[in-house]
Amino acid sequence: QAQLVESGGGLVQAGGSLRLSCAASGRTFSSYSIGWFRQGPGKEREFISEITYAASSGTYYAESVKGRFTISKDNAKSTVYLQMNSLKPEDTAVYYCAAGTWALRYGPNLVEFWGRGTQVTVSS
């Protein structure tokens, strides 16, 4: 059974950094895109970033995080990372790892597998 498990969330002050990890198991994700969505209080789930699992790893970012967040992967560990720098209070949300055969940036409806989420809280 395919499984995505997030870790690395927590409480950080504005301007600080966190690194989220998403460990994939249970199936081969070599043909999938894996990425991150987030859902803040009272908000819809929104796309943050994705990376294709193919050798030519394309990366994509939402405008709100471009230049601050970096997605990367370690194929040997079947793990995708999201390095988050210069965090702002508006980045506070539950962050979900997601995987799908279609581009995740086109919306959560294209996600085939979800993690359970990890809370990120940025204090001002």
Set out the fold topology.
Blueprint: E1 3-7, E2 10-13, E3 18-25, E4 33-39, E5 46-52, E6 59-61, E7 69-74, E8 79-84, E9 93-100, E10 113-114, E11 118-123
Parallel strand pairs: 2-11
Antiparallel strand pairs: 1-3, 3-8, 4-5, 4-9, 5-6, 7-8, 9-10, 9-11
Describe what this molecule looks like in 3D.
- By secondary structure, the chain is mainly β.
- It contains no helices and eleven strands.
- Strands 2, 4, 5, 6, 9, 10 and 11 form a seven-stranded mixed β-sheet that branches. A four-stranded antiparallel β-sheet has the order 1-3-8-7, with no helix packed on it.
- Strand 5 and strand 6 (59-61) form a beta hairpin.
Note the beta-strand portion. Answer: over 45%
Low-confidence stretches: none
* Largest β-sheet summary: 7 strands, mixed
Overall, the morphology is globular
Beta strands, count: 11
Summed up, the helix count is 0
Quick check: average pLDDT? 93
Structure classification:
mainly beta
Helix content: under 10%
What string gives the helices and strands in order? EEEEEEEEEEE
Rg of Cα set: 13 Å
Distance between the termini: 40 Å
Offer a concise description of the structure.
This protein is mainly beta and 124 residues long. It has no helices and eleven strands.
Keyword list:
11 strands, 4-stranded antiparallel sheet, single chain, 50% strand, mainly beta, 124 residues, 7-stranded mixed sheet
